[in-house]
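Researcher: We plan to redesign the surface later, but first we want a full-length starting point. Tokens attached.
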């Protein structure tokens, strides 16, 4: 099974492609899609749409696992991340890729075993689980890998819907 993990954001969308065979997880590709604050919002969203579409076409994952939004303070930031997240979901739907959504608490629980784990703990476990030489940077990439790992460690039907 091939999973795409997504950590949505307007400035940076972290993405990860992981193959799961039995209990084995193999990272195939990971990185980020960056957009500049100097260009109009619509163009930033279009850039995310186009680059994510190319990744979906190249890797053809069976599922896109997306981190759900959790903001308790910055409403403006929540709106912009929500717009980018919507573009990610739309891109998955157009590629007929199933979507699973996970809260930050679910991701931390699945990766570390503690839903209140610190970012550093999650990053260290991502490195260990995927047998990486170093922790991927920026954090958005590590988060995308963690979301993909979370999906791989969950029952297949949980949170899954056809894009």
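Model: Full-length starting sequence:
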């Amino acid at each position: 099974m091939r999973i795409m993990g997504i950590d949505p954001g307007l400035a940076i969308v972290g993405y990860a492609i992981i193959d799961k065979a039995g209990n084995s997880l193999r990272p195939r590709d990971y990185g980020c899609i960056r957009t500049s604050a100097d260009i109009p919002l619509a163009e930033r969203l279009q850039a995310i749409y186009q680059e994510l579409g190319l990744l979906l076409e190249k890797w053809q994952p069976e599922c896109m696992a997306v981190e759900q939004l959790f903001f308790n303070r910055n409403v403006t930031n929540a709106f912009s991340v929500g717009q980018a997240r919507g573009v990610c979901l739309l891109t998955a739907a157009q590629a007929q890729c199933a979507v699973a959504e996970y809260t930050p608490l679910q991701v931390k629980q699945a990766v570390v075993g503690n839903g209140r784990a610190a970012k550093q703990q999650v990053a260290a476990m991502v490195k260990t689980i995927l047998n990486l030489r170093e922790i991927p940077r920026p954090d958005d990439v590590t988060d995308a890998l963690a979301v993909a790992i979370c999906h791989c460690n969950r029952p297949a039907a949980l949170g899954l819907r056809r894009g």
